[in-house]
Task: inverse folding
């Protein structure tokens, strides 16, 4: 039987102060919850999504839905984020295009979509908005904050910004700062969007979309999400619907067909301006720079940490979180670090469940049985 | 004192039979030579360039030139490709845009540039055209064929196609087939060009160029040519002309500035259609498929091989040529395999000289002193 869920909305009028110094509001937050908040209001877990994710982390919106939420294998009754025990919350982050205020939302000052008038946001700003949601839901303590990739960055920022609320943080396939190579890939993706004539300085809503640019950005992204190994396994040099190369510029190899499909389908479900703002938020993420040093960043945190990396993740190489784990450990704090041998590259956090499930279940059990 | 050289041209009217079955001609070849062909006509070395290279491998075209040819550190008096001993030849390959017939050349049938009427070409076709040049220059035997990346693919094809002419092949930062990941990066680069409205199905000569698309393709390429390590060393998260991020969509980080510059400057010197055709030739390169197996491909080769890879080259990982070396060795042929510890990623073949020089000098000395 399918677990049916619905996306809910929460709005607040008071402005929040963004990291860039500007005040911004009003803000609507799209979110979903799974399981029930207990009487002591301390069994809540906040799940945080990555670049192209949304609030729909688990279950189905209707019986007809073919695909469940993006982390359905991890969230539900008896699953690692066990909805029989925990109250799991997931919200679309600030700047997104799946119900939470972002560049495609209407700017009340003009009655038109914000477009490039949307403010530059950071991971800190995303977290601040999530804090408003947590307060609104009456949650006192977060048993855990958890997410992969950009979701892991939010989890780290949560543990730093709200040390009295966050009891634990599960940070997966992520980093304490974005690398030069990742900034470079993001920059090329942004350039693909911005150089699409349909982008029109971000003012394309109601007109033709910068579809070619956004598709290109997504194609680049997809290559980086897979490992060379998994690409080889998945496609090798296999030809698309033919036995011999036919010497033309049509799709020759399966990997080409896959990328074109991924690029095109992304255009149907994602907003190009959101891509710009969110990828910038990732670029700006650097806990070392922001807090002076990593040790200084985590000095007041009361959270226990679980850091998970994947051997074939070349976009967020294991070494980075491993080093961070050592730093946090040297502060006398509890950190579990696991490097999972999985072939799927960065996407492993969405594809590898056997080890991830066991590790996360045990980690959460350890937190929930402690006072 | 600068070694002054000039680019020469050789044309032939008879058509060559392309790997795709079509006949193609006439063809002009741009080439340069360094050193002198000896009396026995057997001291010639053919140097083969990579995707964006040209015939100008060494020396200067004029006293005013600031930059020498692309492999000047390797070619010249007393250098590994020692022009006191060897007669070094380099030509722009078929499909290029630096003097040899390519998509931007005039199609004699129409009086206009070929554009997309240029035939699909392969590495085999490039080699066939080079063979015409070698014959024209009166070279009987090639002491060596040598090149990095796509240049290495040509060297491998030379050793297979002309076993009685090629005495040795130095194959650097290359592979016996292009990987799925490389095809994927090429496909995104081609899509960037093709989706640029100025591309106009390849018919843009004399009009606005598909500059945005070509710049994007080059930016993607540049990320793949560098290692994460070298990017980190070179740029890290260093800001461009500022001390703090200023929260906007201008260039924030040095790596962004570098990529934009590389993209833009490529547009001034390279033809977008050449990029399409050459990257396709790379995609099609697969000696395993073409010859049934790698062992079968090399069974008649009389060449000695030098395979050089670089530890941080993730675009052409060392393992591929290492495995190929084993296969060729198992045929009882002489193969030297060196994996050089260098931080520059794929670009190491253009940047690392200390080890490369010594290894190539010794390899060539070994060939030239044998009968």
Result:
């Amino acid at each position: 039987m399918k677990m049916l869920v619905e996306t809910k909305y929460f709005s607040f009028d008071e402005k929040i102060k963004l990291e860039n110094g500007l005040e911004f509001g009003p803000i609507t937050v799209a979110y979903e919850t799974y399981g029930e908040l207990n009487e002591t209001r301390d069994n809540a877990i906040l799940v945080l999504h990555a670049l192209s994710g949304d609030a729909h982390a688990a279950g189905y919106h209707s019986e007809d839905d073919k695909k469940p939420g993006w982390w359905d294998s991890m969230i539900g009754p008896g699953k690692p984020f066990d909805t029989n025990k925990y109250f799991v919350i997931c919200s679309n982050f600030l700047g997104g295009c799946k119900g939470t205020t972002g560049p495609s939302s209407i700017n009340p000052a003009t009655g038109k979509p914000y477009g490039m008038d949307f403010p530059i946001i950071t991971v800190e700003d995303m977290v601040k908005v999530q804090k408003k949601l947590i307060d609104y839901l009456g949650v006192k303590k977060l048993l855990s904050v958890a997410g992969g990739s950009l979701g892991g960055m939010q989890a780290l920022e949560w543990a730093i910004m709200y040390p009295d609320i966050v009891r634990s943080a599960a940070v997966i396939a992520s980093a304490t700062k974005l690398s030069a190579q990742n900034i470079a890939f993001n920059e090329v993706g942004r350039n693909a969007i911005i150089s699409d004539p349909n982008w029109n300085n971000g003012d394309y809503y109601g007109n033709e979309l910068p579809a070619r640019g956004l598709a290109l950005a997504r194609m680049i992204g997809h290559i980086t999400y897979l490992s060379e190994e998994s690409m080889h396994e998945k496609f090798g040099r296999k030809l698309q619907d033919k036995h011999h190369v036919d010497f033309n510029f049509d799709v020759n190899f399966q990997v080409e067909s896959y990328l074109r499909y991924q690029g095109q389908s992304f255009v149907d479900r994602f907003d190009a301006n959101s891509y710009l703002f969110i990828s910038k938020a990732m670029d700006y993420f650097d806990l070392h720079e922001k807090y002076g040093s990593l040790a200084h960043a985590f000095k007041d945190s009361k959270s226990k940490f679980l850091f998970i990396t994947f051997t074939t993740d070349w976009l967020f190489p294991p070494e980075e979180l491993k080093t961070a784990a050592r730093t946090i450990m040297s502060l006398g704090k509890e950190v579990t670090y696991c490097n999972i041998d999985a072939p799927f590259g960065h996407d492993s956090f969405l594809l590898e469940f056997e080890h991830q499930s066991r590790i996360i279940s045990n980690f959460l059990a350890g937190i929930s049985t402690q006072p």
